[in-house]
From TrEMBL:
It holds the Pfam family HTH_3. Transmembrane segments: none annotated. It comes from Thalassobacterium sedimentorum. Coiled coil: none annotated. Keywords: DNA-binding. Residues 13-67 form the HTH cro/C1-type domain. InterPro entries: Cro/C1-type_HTH, Cupin_2, Lambda_DNA-bd_dom_sf, RmlC-like_jellyroll, RmlC_Cupin_sf, TransReg_Diox_bact_type. SUPFAM superfamilies: lambda repressor-like DNA-binding domains, RmlC-like cupins. This is XRE family transcriptional regulator.
């Protein structure tokens, strides 16, 4: 592995600081990290210690892991959609860490009573066209275009297609932060 691939970019601390309307002195006061140390970190001129990472993250309301992830993934990530069919649904899917996004189309009369296996995540269905009913253990919801439903995907659930439909479905890890 190329050592340059392991570089972390802590200029993200400057971005977070400016977005919060804070000065170097403000962050220094709240974190206990010296202004000189913060300035060097923001310019990627020194390495960060775990304790410093933790203290800075808390200033911005983040976990140390969140701050580290921001420093690690400063650039955008592009993926191509995959297409597949499951029951009455034709899907296009892209997935990134913590989220899977599906664009789905289904014909009237179809039903999917055993959706793909889920982990510990939430599911959001946003209907763009048509009409569907989502059945959960103790309730059911009929959606019209422009309506969305969020539920715990670990619950047994099914989709009944009442009219030809188009929708966006998101699977969000419960631990994922936005």
């Amino acid at each position: 592995m190329n050592p340059n691939d392991l570089t972390l970019d802590f200029s993200v601390v400057r971005d977070l600081r400016k977005r919060a309307g804070m000065t170097l002195d403000d962050v220094s006061q709240k974190s206990g990290v010296s202004i000189a140390g913060l300035s060097k970190l923001e310019r990627n001129q020194n390495m960060i210690e775990l304790d410093t990472l933790y203290r800075l993250a808390r200033v911005f309301g983040l976990s140390a892991t969140d701050l580290l992830n921001l420093a690690e993934s400063c650039s955008a990530h592009r993926k191509d959609a995959e297409t597949y069919t499951s029951g009455p649904f034709d899907f296009e899917k892209v997935g990134f860490k913590g989220i899977d996004c599906f664009q789905a189309k289904a014909k009237a009369g179809g039903e999917l009573s055993k959706p793909e296996a889920h982990g510990d995540e939430f599911e959001i269905c946003w209907l763009h066209a048509g009409s569907i009913t989502i059945k959960l253990p103790r309730e059911q919801h009929t959606l019209k275009p422009g309506q969305a439903l969020k539920f715990d995907a670990a619950l047994p659930h099914s989709y009944e297609i009442l009219q030809d439909s188009e929708m966006t479905i998101l699977h969000l890890e419960k631990t994922h932060r936005f």
